[in-house]
Amino acid sequence: MYKDTYKRIEREYESKRNLANQNFQKLKENTYNNNPRLKEIDLEISKLGIKAVRLSITSDKSQSCKDLENQIAKLKKEREQILSKLNIELVPKYSCTKCNDTGYIYENGTSQMCSCFKQELINESYSKSNLYKLKEESFDKVNLNLFSNEVNKDYQISPRANMEKIIKIAKDFIDNFEDPSQKNLLFTGTPRSR
Ligand SMILES: [Zn+2]
User: Fold this and answer.
1) Domain limits, the chain
2) CA of 188 to the centre of ligand 1 (A)
3) 38: number of Cβ within 10 Å
4) CA 99 – ligand 1 centroid, Å
5) What phi, psi does 150 have (nearest 5°)?
6) Span from the CA of 16 to the centroid of ligand 1 (angstroms)
7) CA 32, CA 40: separation in Å to the nearest integer?
8) What is the rounded CA–CA span in Å between residue 113 and residue 10?
9) Residue closest to 98 by CA, chosen among 119, 121, 114, 122
10) pLDDT 10s digit of each residue in the chain, 194 long?
11) Is there a contact between 41 and 49 (Cβ–Cβ < 8 Å)?
12) 10 Cα to the center of ligand 1, angstroms
């Protein structure tokens, strides 16, 4: 079950990612069409970047490598200026900026699940557990008429009086929830259906 849920969420993340990338490509094409200089700059930056990598592998820190880095920095500055004038952020818009909708954060050679992915798994388990139905329940909805007034000989209390006692304990528990000395509550027994 967990594996299926996990796989399903992973597929949803893949679609989210693809959609963000597609939208980014569209935005890029539009921006390039309206601002051809931007396209030139991006092409130039990637060409110079490849050159710089080649140079850094083949030779030790030569002057030409420094020149390339300076040229790239200059182009990046021009790019930034154009984009800020246009008020456009030319990056994919992922719904989670921590993991870029991959569900994982890669750091120092290791990967860990992003909080957004964990939350999705929790939401899924929650909705499958029937606990979500509790949202509709409250003390106001308790129908004490369901419980008899007849005193139970074994317990010396009627089911109704017993239920009133339980409700009071539960309410007190909620009122004192922040109190560290408050003990936990455990409900046992057969649930009674309406
Ligand atoms: Zn995330």
Assistant:
1) 2-92, 138-184
2) 38
3) 20
4) 4
5) -75, 125
6) 12
7) 9
8) 11
9) 114
10) 678 889 999 999 999 999 999 999 999 999 999 999 999 999 999 999 998 888 878 766 666 778 888 999 999 999 999 999 999 999 999 999 999 999 999 988 899 999 999 999 988 888 777 776 777 778 888 899 999 999 888 888 999 999 999 999 999 988 888 888 888 888 787 765 54
11) no
12) 12
Enter the tokens of residue 145: 């008429």
Q: How far apart are the CA of 11 and the centre of ligand 1, in A?
A: 14
Paired tokens of 99: 């993991």
